[in-house]
Amino acid sequence: AKLGWKDYDQRRIRVYQRISGPEGNFVGNSVTTQRFVQDTTAWEIGTRATFNTGPFSHVFVIAYSGFYTQFDFAGGSLPISYESNIFNPIRVARPDIPEEIFSLDRSENSLASFFVLEQTNSGISFIDTIKAFDDRLVLVVGARRQGFEVPAFNYDEEAWTPISSIVGKINDNFSLYATYSEAFQQGPTAPLQGVANPGEIFSPFTTESFEGGVKFDIGRVGGSLAAFQTELPAARTNPETNIFEIVGGELYRGLEFIAFGEPTPGLNLISGIVLLDTELQNTGNAALDGNFTTATSDVLASFSAEYDIEAIPGFTVRSTVIHTGRQFLDQANEQRIPSSTRVDLGARYSFDIGDTRMITRFDIQNVSDLDYWSSAGQTPGREWLARGEPRTFLFSASVLF
Question: What share of the chain is helix, strand, coil (3-state, %, to 5)?
Answer without folding.
Answer: 0, 70, 30
